[in-house]
Design brief:
The protein has helices at residues 2-15, 28-37, 88-97; strands at 20-22, 42-48, 52-59, 62-69, 74-81, 102-111, 114-122, 126-133, 138-145. By secondary structure, it is of the alpha+beta class.
Length: 147
C-alpha cells in the first residue's frame, strides 16, 4: 500500500514537471527490460529522478507510464482505461454508491502484484476522486467543488 501511495505521489510530481526529460537514456538494463516488456510501445518519452526511470508511451492506443529502478526492475505501471475495463465488482459499487455521478476518467495502477484504480467522478456541482482495489473497496481521496 505504501508503494501505491508513493506511485501516486510520483504521478503527481510528474504531472507538475519535476522530472528531468531525456530523449534517450544511458541505462542498458532499463532499456532492455523496457523493450522486452513493452515491445509494441510507440512515442516513448523518458524521464528520470535521482533513483528511477519513467517511460511514458502509447500502447494499443492507450497512454501508459512505466516506472523502473536503476537495475531495470519494473516497479509499477499506470494507464488510462475506460469504465468497461473496470472489474465488475468495482463498477457495481461505483454505480450503487454514486448513482448521480458519471465517470470522468480512470487510471489503473499496477505495483507489487496488486491493482488499484483511481476514479474521478463528476456531478453538476463537484468532482469526487476515489481509490478502489480490485475487490471494489472504495476510499474517497478528494471532493472538489466546481467553480
Amino acid at each position: 500500500m505504501k508503494k501505491i501511495i508513493a506511485i501516486l505521489t510520483l504521478v503527481t510530481v510528474f504531472a507538475t514537471g519535476a522530472f528531468a526529460f531525456d530523449e534517450t537514456i544511458d541505462n542498458k538494463k532499463v532499456l532492455e527490460s523496457f523493450k522486452k516488456e513493452f515491445a509494441t510501445a510507440e512515442s516513448v518519452s523518458w524521464y528520470t529522478t535521482s533513483d528511477k526511470y519513467v517511460a511514458k508511451f502509447t500502447m494499443h492506443a492507450r497512454k501508459v507510464t512505466a516506472h523502473y529502478d536503476r537495475e531495470g526492475n519494473l516497479l509499477a505501471t499506470s494507464r488510462y482505461i475506460g469504465d468497461a475495463d473496470l472489474p465488475l465488482n468495482v463498477i457495481t459499487r461505483l454505480m450503487k454508491k454514486y448513482p448521480d455521478q458519471k465517470i470522468n476518467n480512470i487510471v489503473e495502477y499496477e505495483a507489487e502484484g496488486s491493482t488499484t484504480y483511481v476514479v474521478t467522478l463528476e456531478s453538476d456541482t463537484h468532482w469526487t476522486v476515489l481509490k478502489s482495489d480490485s475487490d471494489g473497496n472504495l476510499t474517497r481521496l478528494k471532493k472538489l467543488q466546481k467553480a
